[in-house]
Design brief:
Elements lengths: L1 H29 L6 E4 L3 E4 L12 E5 L3 E2 L5 E5 L8 E8 L5 E10 L6 E4 L4 E3 L10 E5 L3 E2 L5 E5 L7 E10 L5 E11 L7 E4 L3 E4 L11 E5 L13 E3 L9 E10 L5 E10 L1
Parallel strand pairs: 2-7, 9-14, 16-20
Antiparallel strand pairs: 1-3, 3-4, 5-6, 6-7, 8-10, 10-11, 12-13, 13-14, 15-17, 18-19, 19-20
């Protein structure tokens, strides 16, 4: 009886060893070690600046020898800065179920991209002795990221708060695509008394396309003269736009002047960027 049991155990052991060998051989010969492959309908893609990351995958397909179509697993791995021709490179990655992966790149372009722009929230006008601050008066907006005011930097400044005069500064901002916008601005430091008049504009920075002729008088919001009982008439404001060329891209200053009852003259500056 014991002999029969021994023979049975030996046979079972042999069968287990054979089964383990077969399983090892199957796993070895059927291990998924092949990388997925990409197929693209075109080498370039054009999208809106409002496109989401999934939109950058349009026209791109991925296949795996074991999993089949795995297009829905494609992910955007990275986006480069702009190149010289305003294109950028998108890098994609896809994984199969065995964690094999492949990457590919293609060129992309935005169809409606515009560089970052600035806004002047307050006029760059200070009194002698004031603490001169700039970045709290300037904001920046990007068509892709929105508000990027926290990235504004002051590149140049020759302003003296102790001396009345006209000065220049330059600010800069860079978006995530590496595109940098710069803006020169005029800063006025005046020695004005409490009875001095002031000119308020509806905006202090204007962007316009080359060839568009603007009526700058429409930007006068109000004229205040403390020595007058009524508001000063806007028609009494003189405008000097002699340095402005609406046909040539560049940055220009338009000056507004008003002499009040005290004999003091108020000055406001409109910065015009012709694109």
């Amino acid at each position: 009886m014991l002999r029969v049991i021994r023979i049975g155990l030996i046979a079972l052991t042999v069968m287990l060893l054979i089964g383990a060998g077969i399983l090892f051989y199957y796993n070895y010969t059927h291990e998924d070690i092949s990388k997925p492959t990409f197929q693209a309908s075109s080498a370039t893609i054009e999208v809106s600046v409002k496109a989401e990351r999934k939109d950058l995958c349009a026209g791109l397909h991925a296949y795996d020898n074991m999993d089949g179509d795995i297009t829905d697993r494609i992910m955007v791995q990275s986006i480069s800065n702009f190149s010289a021709d305003d294109s950028f490179r998108v890098r994609y990655i896809v994984f199969d179920r065995a964690s094999n992966y492949s990457v590919c790149e293609r060129v992309a372009r935005y169809t409606d991209y515009t560089p970052p722009t600035f806004t002047l929230n307050k006029p760059m006008v200070f009194n002698v002795g004031d603490t001169i601050t700039y970045l709290d008066r300037i904001s920046a907006n990007d068509c892709i990221e929105g508000d990027i005011s926290d990235r504004i930097t002051l590149l140049e400044s020759n302003v003296s708060s102790s001396t009345q005069g006209t000065y220049r500064i330059k600010v800069s901002v860079t978006n995530k695509m590496g595109d940098t916008a710069e803006l020169p601005l005029t800063v006025l430091v005046r020695n004005a008394s409490p009875s001095a008049p002031t000119i308020t504009l509806s905006k202090y920075l204007l962007y316009q396309k080359a060839g568009e002729l603007k009526n700058f008088r429409t930007l006068i919001a109000s004229v205040s003269d403390p020595l007058l009982e009524e508001a000063a008439p806007k028609k009494n404001v003189k405008i000097n736009s002699s340095g402005y060329d609406y046909q040539t891209p560049g940055t220009y200053d338009v000056y507004y002047y008003y002499t009040g009852a005290s004999g003091e003259t108020a000055t406001a500056v409109l910065t015009v960027v012709v694109e």
